[in-house]
Design brief:
The chain is an alpha/beta fold. It has a single domain, classed as 3-Layer(aba) Sandwich (Rossmann fold), CATH 3.40.50. The protein has 5 helices and 7 strands. Strands 1-3-4-2-5-6-7 form a 7-stranded mixed β-sheet, sandwiched between helices. A hairpin with a 2-residue loop joins β3 and β4. α1 crosses α5. The longest helix has 17 residues. The radius of gyration is 16 Å and the shape is globular. The two termini are 23 Å apart.
Amino acid sequence: MINFQKTKFITSAAQLNQLVEDSLAEVAFAGRSNAGKSSAINAIVGMNGLAKTSKTPGRTQLINFFEVDKQRYLVDLPGYGYAKVPAAVKAAWQQTLNRYLEVREPLKALILIIDIRHLLKPFDQQMISWAIASNLPIHVILTKADKLSTNQAKQALFSFEKQIPSGALVTAQIFSALKKQGVDEARKIISAFLCQNLDDKTE
């Protein structure tokens, strides 16, 4: 398994022509604004300040690249959905995000961050549908599980899994950055994605 504790920030990209060029494999993190994406990344890599966290939705405005191993990257995508930014700025983020997902060849899988208390908002459903249609594996991390009881969290996971089409390349787990719940599971799954052969995505 990849040692995530060696992860380091490499660069931020505002446009597609600024993306890292040496990537062999990358896993992208997406999620609604304020779903806990940055906190989840920090928990997975074991570094509190690597991905910048904020209580203000829309903090991540660039595509941020973190190298976890030689030429293997975690990619923090701009938060989608609600954000306290002008509509034109939000539209530009969405266009860049869409293009990245459509054309980025090293992309092995998508990690979708969803607040376990607010399952499957329209943007989440859109991302899952897109990944299924593109035959791109997607792993859903249901964050903030510490806000629910153990039984409530399990029921939320079960409810989510029931809504996924049979045979889809979609997996899901319970996660809490605060309690470090589900961190090892997430690391194993992401490691497997990053260690795939380059042509696996199109097989």
